[in-house]
Amino acid sequence: MEKQWLQWAKELQAISQSGLAYSKNEFDIERFQRIREISVEIMSEYTQISNTKIRSLFANETGYQTPKIDVRAVIFNNNKILMVKEKKDNKWSLPGGYADIDLSVSENAKKESMEEAGAVVSPKRIIAVLDRNKYVDDDYPYSIYKIFVECDYIEGEYINNIETCEAEFFDSDNLPQLSLGRNTKEQIEMCFKAREKELLEPIFD
Which tens digit of pLDDT belongs to each residue from 152-202? Predict the structure, then answer.
């Protein structure tokens, strides 16, 4: 469950961002700027991160605020799941990341699989669409919808890249240390269970 202070900070940030985007009156703009500053101050107070850095990460967008989209490719081969080791934290995740504009969900899954794991895949079906912050308790400032896409594995060979340092298939009972902001153990287990179902009703929450 997301902490109350974080909910307030995110709501204030969203209100201020919309207000700054659509307000014409200079006094209203000034008020919304102050609301945005308050949201930054709340985040800084509870995370011990400087106002400047919080502002650049948390209060850096314009227009109506919407959730970000994170596409994760779920790739099986011989009943093992493909994972990549992230350079940022040396922990493991499903290939994926923020969706690129002008690419569909399927195209993003194919792109991330190739870039991060060197895997050629054919997207097959959506397993789940989940709200990241309902499953990870780490005071993350953004709202993110995570789309898990099951893909058929065609072929692959890991290629060195700027985001990952390894790619490997794992059994369900021998998972590596997970990069929890990207995927949890329960989500990986969800993917293995989906694999067993010929007819799948996607999970969403």
Answer: 999 999 999 999 999 999 999 999 999 999 999 999 999 999 999 989 999
CATH code assigned to 68-204: 3.90.79.10
Give the C-alpha separation, 169 to 81, whole Å: 5
Q: Which of 99, 11, 10, 14 is nearest to 61 (CA)?
A: 14
The residues spanned by each domain of the chain are: 4-58, 68-204
Q: Which residues are CB-contacts of 139 (< 8 A; sequence separation ≥ 6)?
A: 3, 6, 46, 47
Q: What is the pLDDT of residues 77-132, one digit of tens each?
A: 999 999 999 999 999 999 999 999 899 999 999 999 999 999 999 999 999 999 99
- Any idea which residue has 């895949």 for tokens? 121
Q: Which alpha helices (H) appear in 25-159, and where do they start and end?
A: 26-47, 51-58, 105-117
